[in-house]
Design brief:
mainly alpha, about 425 residues, about 0% strand, Growth Hormone, Chain: A
């Protein structure tokens, strides 16, 4: 198999045939078992990440700072997302240079899961804002290290013609993880600390089958260029001039994630303070409303994700699906700005999910096709993942003033919808992917 120019440069110090397995573009189809176990590990990751951030974290913030819960939650979320922004590309870059006989990625997956699980268990016992901030930052660093290694498994092992389908299953896992998290934390383990323990266990235990039963290509030491800190740190800057498609893919993902995060982080508060869920349904909790909406979201997004993923792989087209999905999501958010009934929220959630499912089915597949170099897949995907963690750091900073000072949730929805539409339009600037 012919290696790309970038791979050849990566191996220029001492090229050897056994290095090619870890760096070459995959062409052999992966089995359903591989996709299934990778999806299961992703489910554990996102159960911890989104199950906690959407339910346990705002509940705990409200207990510690009842009179300023929005501000406290914004602080915790923003600093945790900042930790994620730093950890994701760093762990990705380190995994790119890992020469363990077990492969480049698996050690980082299980290490990140273990660190996150410990931090989450301790987080459940915190009674101060400072304690919450510190441990949530540690947990987010661990989970994003895990995310960096799992994400890199796709371009490492999955050929282009299977990537949209694989990305579709992995992309639905954030919503599925929220469902699992809500079920465990709101219905099975109802105590705050018990909920954290249950979700921490999911992060670790669901990663084990993938790590223990799949093989990861081993990178030869001879394939590594000499390590220099200056080169290592400089590698985190990817020139938009030299790699414009990579830059536009980054911008598109950032805006799409920002528009979504600006609302989803405040969904629990929206149901309590705008829909008045607990007054509409006496005896019910707003957390139950979040659970119902998440079920709707997951079911509808799975429907379009699998369908669009199949169509995208079959036709080899990506951009048109991203554009349509962004327009659908943006329209749904604008509709939510004026329709605040429980029925309205359910309908809007279904529309959002249909658009989001189409988006996640092709977005990750498209991104893996614009990576600058095979030897830096983990690091480059970590840089791309800035566009996931970054919005979760920025969203509370933007959303809190909109909710508190500038018109409330209608303004928030309108701004989020506008960002989603703009993000989808920018994907047209990517030239090398149809």
């Amino acid at each position: 198999m012919m290696l790309s120019t970038e791979v050849a440069e990566f191996r220029r110090a001492a090229p050897r045939p056994d290095a090619s397995a870890a760096l070459a573009e995959p062409v052999m189809p992966v089995r359903k078992r591989f996709i299934g176990l990778l999806t299961l590990a992703s489910l554990g990751l996102y159960t911890g990440m989104f199950g906690i951030s959407n339910l346990l974290l705002p509940r705990q913030a409200a207990l510690i700072s009842p009179d300023s819960k929005e501000t406290a939650f914004a602080l915790i979320s923003s600093l945790g997302a900042l930790a994620a922004v730093l950890a994701n590309p760093l762990i990705g870059a380190l995994s790119d240079r890992t020469t363990s006989r077990f492969g480049r990625r698996h050690g980082w997956t299980i290490g990140g899961a273990t660190i996150a699980a410990i931090a989450l268990i301790l987080l459940g016992h915190q009674t101060t804002l400072l304690g919450m901030v510190v441990l949530w930052c540690v947990a987010m660093a661990g989970m994003n290290g895990m995310q960096a290694s799992l994400t890199a498994e796709v371009p490492d092992h999955v050929p282009v013609r299977q990537r949209a389908v694989t990305s579709a299953f992995m992309g639905v896992m954030p919503a599925a993880g929220t469902i699992v998290g809500v079920v465990l934390a709101a219905y099975v383990f109802t105590g705050l600390s018990e909920g954290y323990v249950a979700l921490a266990a999911m992060v670790l235990l669901l990663a084990l089958p993938f790590v223990l039963t799949t093989r990861d290509a081993v990178l030869s030491r001879a394939a590594l260029a000499p390590f220099r800190w200056r080169d290592f740190l400089a590698g985190f800057w990817i020139s938009p001039r030299q790699h414009p498609d990579f830059a536009w893919a980054w911008i598109t993902r950032f805006m799409m994630q920002l528009g979504s995060a600006m609302f989803t982080l405040y969904l629990l508060f929206f149901l309590r303070d705008v829909v008045h869920y607990e007054q509409v349904f006496p005896g019910k909790r707003s957390e139950e409303g979040v659970f119902i909406l998440t079920l709707i979201y997951t079911g509808c997004s799975l429907l379009t994700a699998t369908t669009v993923g199949y169509l995208s792989d079959r036709r080899g087209r990506r951009k048109i699906f991203v554009i349509v999905s962004g327009l659908v999501q943006g329209a749904a958010m604008l509709l939510l700005a004026v329709w605040h009934t429980w029925l309205g929220v359910q309908c809007v959630t279904a529309i959002l999910a249909l658009g989001y499912g189409a988006y996640i089915a092709v977005d990750q597949a498209m991104i893996t096709q614009v990576l600058p170099a095979a030897g830096n897949r983990g690091k480059d995907l970590g840089v791309i993942n800035f566009a996931i963690a970054g919005p979760y750091a920025l969203a509370p900073v933007l959303a809190a003033p909109l909710v508190i000072q500038f018109g409330g949730y209608p303004t928030l929805c309108a701004v989020a919808g506008t960002i989603l539409v703009l993000g989808s339009i920018f994907v047209r600037n990517i030239k090398t992917v149809p």
